[in-house]
Every structure is written in C-alpha cells, then in structure tokens.
C-alpha cells in the first residue's frame, strides 16, 4: 500500500515539474501525443523547442517516411514556424512541400497538436500559480 502511495506521489511530482517547465519553455515531444498522425508511411514524431514563448527549433524524430520526401517537407514547413510565438504558430496556415503532401500535412498537424498541448499545460500552470498567490 505504501509503495503504491509513493509511486503516485512520485508521478504527481514529475507531472508538476514537467508542467512548470512548459510555462517557461521547453521541449515538446509529439511521439505519444500525436501517434495517430500519419504521413505517407506512418507516424511523424517531432521535437519542438520553445524558449520565452517562441519556437526556436523543430526536429524530426525517427520515422518510416521516405527520407527524400520527409526532408522536402521539413525544409518547406519547419522554417515557417521558427521565431513565431505559440499562438502565432497554432493559427498559422503554412504551405506544404509539393510532392510531399502527406508528410507535410502530418508535420503541420504534429506541430499544432504539440503546441496546443503546450499551451494548455502552460495555462493550467499559470492558473495554479495565481490561485496560490491569493
């Protein structure tokens, strides 16, 4: 019984720490969050780095996409997001790469899901902090 209680407390602490990190910035991994998002050959997980509320880096993780087409999509889509705020990026309607339509759409959907989740986490953290100050 004590072991389960300790495990739950540990998980709660980890989640709280991760949520606080989101509020300041951090790395968003879309692998688990967007595992249902598929390009031409399967999932297209990404790592999105946010610093001071702006996207500073997007990296593609291992995928079964054709390297040639996946690179085309990355080169076309990623730069459109770099330097944008989270809100700007969520509302962005980027152009995809001609010839790499499925990969482009999957990358865009991954980015939007990751950033939407990031925003929710940051919002819930700021709400919790403001309640504590009262």
Question: Could you characterize the architecture of this molecule?
Answer:
The structure is a single chain. This protein is α+β, with helices and mostly antiparallel strands. It is 57% helix and 13% strand. The chain is built from four helices and three strands; from the N terminus they run αβββααα. The protein has helices at residues 2-24, 67-81, 86-91, 101-133, and strands at 25-29, 46-51, 54-60. It has a three-stranded antiparallel β-sheet with strand order 1-2-3. Strand 2 (46-51) and strand 3 form a beta hairpin. Helix 1 (2-24) crosses helix 4 (101-133) and helix 2 (67-81) packs across helix 4. The longest helix is centred in the last third of the chain and has 33 residues, at 101-133. It is globular. The termini are far apart. Mean pLDDT is 83; it is low at 8-23.
